[in-house]
Amino acid sequence: MENLKKAYIAGGCFWGMEDLFRVRPGVKDTQVGYLGGSNENPTYANHPGHAEGLEIVYDPAETSYSELLDYFYRVHDPRTMNRQGNDIGESYRSAIFIQDKEEEETAKEIIKVVEDSGRWQGKVVTTLEPFTKFWPAEEYHQDYLVKNPNGYTCHFERFGTFL
Known about the structure:
The chain is of the alpha+beta class. The chain contains four helices and eight strands; from the N terminus they run βαββαβββαββα. The longest helix is centred in the C-terminal third of the chain and has 17 residues, at 101-117. It starts with a strand and ends in a 16-residue tail after the last helix.
């Protein structure tokens, strides 16, 4: 367990993101929660400025940060500011929460690859934000689409790999 790493992303409603990432090769655990906001101990009812995000625990011997970000750009629309599907607002922004310089460089490289591919028409609006803290969402949000298989999601695989 000591070799596992964590990545933090947001790309709209956290249910759909978690449902897709939790079964990816090399992903050992996922948890939905709140990132990048202005209050301590955010809740679903009170999370000003926070994005609905995802904590991904992964084994870098089995998958890379680049591969996780590649998949991120395959399952959400990175061109829509503060929106995914029917979900509108700052909570639904496309964001990568950066923990160090290496992650920042990798994120910039992947964004360039995605934009240069031409698969998404338009500019990627994903924000690169410093990681500060991850607050887990309420238990009923965790693995929501496993518990509620007919629940709402706007996330799905749109493309093959960008890498």
